Amino acid sequence: MSEVESAPGRRSPLVFLIPLILFAGLSLVFLVGLFSGDASKVPSALIGKPAPTIALTALEGLQRDGQPVPAFTMADLAKGRATIVNVFASWCAPCRVEHPHLVALAEAPVVKQGKVAVVGLNYKDEAENARRFLGALGNPYSAVGVDRAGRGAIEWGVYGVPETFLIGPDGRIVDKHVGALDVNSAQKLLAKAAALAK
Q: 20 to 30 Å CA-CA from 2: which of 15, 116, 122, 153?
């Protein structure tokens, strides 16, 4: 047997580094994409389209000023005023963080004058827990619709709670904020709503 036949083919050590280099490069691309941009600006295919028609029931036992708080309908969203629709749940920690900003929105002059409405969509929650949540933190909503099974939120393209939508006077979705509102995002949303109300 000759030496040529008995010597196994040797590969360069660099061949083994190629998959590692490719993996590191792809990981870098994914990380840059993951952490760049504003997480609250998740694109929505519903922007500019009418708010989805869903049937919601009122939050059982919820009262405001001694009167039952009604559910809202999609027809209510197209009554010539801007509407801020907030998707919330009592079990949602970020909902507790944003709630004071919603209470402040409800006290804004354009809301008090009825030019802008603030309504809530209670997502996959127990009625007693939702009432306790609003009783403890304040109720900024003129209407609360219950989506116990979560099907309505699917129609609205909700990724998770909290999310907030701005509906124009014609019932079309104008804007969407994903995640908890803070002072700045709440003020921007209110300014957009007030501009639509004119």
A: 15
Angle at alpha carbon of residue 63, lines to 61 and 64, rounded to 5°: 170
Question: Is residue 128 classed exposed, middle or buried when 0-12, 13-18 and 19+ CB atoms within 10 A define those classes?
Answer: exposed
Tokens 């360069």 sit on residue? 12
For the chain, give the number of residues. 198
pLDDT in tens, 89-112: 999 999 999 999 999 999 999 999
Q: What is the pLDDT of residue 197?
A: 82
Q: Over the chain, what is the mean pLDDT?
A: 87
| Among 70, 75, 141, 74, CA closest to 106 | 141
- What is the strand order of the sheet 143-147 is part of? 57-58, 143-147, 116-123, 82-88, 163-167, 173-178
| Phi and psi torsions of 63, nearest 5° | -125, 155
CATH of 57-197, one of 2.40.110.10, 3.30.950.10, 3.30.300.30, 3.40.30.10: 3.40.30.10
Peptide bond into 50 cis (omega under 30): no
Q: What is the pLDDT of residues 158-189, one digit of tens each?
A: 989 999 999 999 999 999 999 999 999 999 99
Task: Tell me how far the alpha carbon of residue 162 is from its chain's centroid.
Answer: 5
For 86, the enclosing helix (H) or strand (E) is: strand 82-88
CA angle 92, 131, 76 (to 5 degrees): 90
